Amino acid sequence: AQKVTQAQTEISVVEKEDVTLDCVYETRDTTYYLFWYKQPPSGELVFLIRRNSFDEQNEISGRYSWNFQKSTSSFNFTITASQVVDSAVYFCALSEFSGTYKYIFGTGTRLKVLA
Amino acid sequence: DTEVTQTPKHLVMGMTNKKSLKCEQHMGHRAMYWYKQKAKKPPELMFVYSYEKLSINESVPSRFSPECPNSSLLNLHLHALQPEDSALYLCASSQDAAASTDTQYFGPGTRLTVL
């Protein structure tokens, strides 16, 4: 069965520290897509990134970077120089086909950035 | 414009009430989703509509009744709910649920309280 594990339930850092959120997945598929979403206290899930299984290049977007390693089935997310506005719950998700495509979400990591 | 709107933002209802949640998107997406999210949990998929047809019903109780009047609108009709149905209800849309590359965009949610 497909599965996404986010072992870190909650992380607290002080502003300007770097922080890495872990995501480990299990899938039988050879082609698959992984996603990261941010959910601030307001509730809306904000799409951050989509990565396909054929592209193992790391991606950087401003202070955000993602490290995809197929060999270890991991898709980790690093925030550099964290800010208070980064405080949110972050979800990793795997796309699964079941007649149509749907997400398998991890349990989420709550990040608290303290001023 | 990656915007999905949901109304109302908050809803309080009694167990005998009938109410509806509304979701709208103008991105030309052909798939729409309802999720239920309890506190400190990931979103749980309830329904998927693809090209205005119900394609996934995740064994949701019949007191929740989805409706997709057209490709831009998605409703969730609520009747005889229980207090345990209190949650954040999220709507999402995506271009084509039959495509593995599909990315879901979420609305801000409706916080439902059942008394």
Q: Can you tell me about this structure?
A:
- By secondary structure, chain A is mainly β.
- Chain A has no helices and twelve strands.
- Chain A has strands spanning 3-5, 10-14, 19-21, 24-26, 33-39, 46-52, 59-61, 64-69, 74-79, 88-97, 101-105, 109-114.
- In chain A, a hairpin with a 4-residue loop joins strand 8 and strand 9 (74-79).
- The radius of gyration of chain A is 14 Å and the shape is globular.
- The termini of chain A are far apart.
- The mean pLDDT of chain A is 93.
- Chain B contains no helices and eleven strands.
- Chain B has strands at residues 4-7, 10-13, 18-25, 31-37, 44-50, 53-57, 64-70, 73-79, 87-94, 105-106, 110-114.
- In chain B, the strands form two sheets. In chain B, strands 2, 4, 5, 6, 9, 10 and 11 form a seven-stranded mixed β-sheet that branches. In chain B, strands 1-3-8-7 form a four-stranded antiparallel β-sheet, with no helix packed on it.
- Chain B has 115 residues and is mostly beta strands.
- The interface between A and B is medium-sized, with 27 and 28 residues.
Descriptive labels:
heterodimer, A: 115 residues, mainly beta, 6-stranded mixed β-sheet, 4-stranded antiparallel β-sheet, 12 strands, 0% helix, B: 115 residues, 7-stranded mixed β-sheet, 11 strands
Structure, briefly:
The complex is a heterodimer of chains A (115) and B (115). By secondary structure, chain A is mainly beta.
The pair of chains with the biggest contact is:
A-B, 27 and 28 residues
Task: Quickly give the structural class of chain A.
Answer: mainly beta
- Could you give the order of the helices and strands of chain A? EEEEEEEEEEEE
Low-confidence stretches of chain A: none
Largest sheet of chain A: 6 strands, mixed
Secondary-structure element pattern of chain B, one letter each: EEEEEEEEEEE
Quantity of strands of chain A, as a count: 12
Apparent shape of chain A? globular
Helix content estimate of chain B: under 10%
* SS element count, helices of chain B: 0
